[in-house]
């Protein structure tokens, strides 16, 4: 039987922001020193000593904060579904989203921490250490961007005639453009890391972020709360919601993060 969902203090998000910021500072210091180890994981994605240092720090801090809530991190994800199925809530963590960017020397990486309750992300923090920007949201309380100590509420409703589409810097944009069936003027915004692309949609700098190819549930958990609280959605390519901790596999389907309700996404994607 699944454990009961615990009622958490409303200011727990500040503790999570502090944990993500500390992990981000650890990553930044390794990035600036330029000395790190690098391996390729079984799924053929890279991992560095910075990912692992951030994972250790987040794991210890979250365990101290909420000893009864389990943690699913990209760097400790080998937990059988039979065990995860017992969880009614858990922390979903990507200690370093954008490892490829980190290795390449680009600034487009961030730390992601989400709280998932009853298969739905309800709290999300995305901290980008090189940009010193934090995006955060709690279900029902709006989405915010914290920069230079100032919190600004963000909204995803961008106005404009051209469809601005955020896509991975490490992917052929044709993989994304071919999904759009209707003739439409499209401007591409190339950026690294899954979360930062979602966040620029959440703050109305892009209309959507389209991801074709594998990602993990940890890549979308925290950004999903931020985009939903900013007025947008995360959907699979059939425009159905993504699911969390519902299957043995933790891989997401292809997905689209949409900000603007004025676009007819079903028509644009030929659904
Ligand atoms: N083969 C694969 N399997 C699973 N996830 C993958 C993957 N290739 C890329 N990803 C995901 O896509 C994210 C990178 O997005 P982008 O290409 O936009 O920079 C990676 O985040 P991490 O850096 O946390 O691993 C990773 O989670
Ligand atoms: Mg990662």
Low-confidence stretches: none
Query: From the alpha-carbon coordinates, what is the Rg to the nearest angstrom?
Result: 18 Å
- Give the beta-strand count: 14
Just name the CATH architecture of the largest domain: 2-Layer Sandwich
**CATH fold-type name of the largest domain:** Fructose-1,6-Bisphosphatase, Chain A, domain 1
Determine the strand fraction and express it as a percent band.
Answer: 25-35%
Terminal-residue CA separation: 38 Å
Average pLDDT number = 94
Bound molecules: adenosine-3'-5'-diphosphate, magnesium ion
What characterizes the major β-sheet?
7 strands, mixed
Number of domains: 2
Shape: globular
**How would you classify the helix and strand content by structural class?**
alpha+beta
Number of helices: 8
- Cross-sheet strand order for the largest sheet: 3-4-5-6-7-8-9
Order of helices and strands: HEEHEHEHEEEEEEHEHEHEEH
CATH class of the largest domain: Alpha Beta
The CATH superfamily name of the largest domain is Fructose-1,6-Bisphosphatase, subunit A, domain 1
Helix share, percent: 25-40%
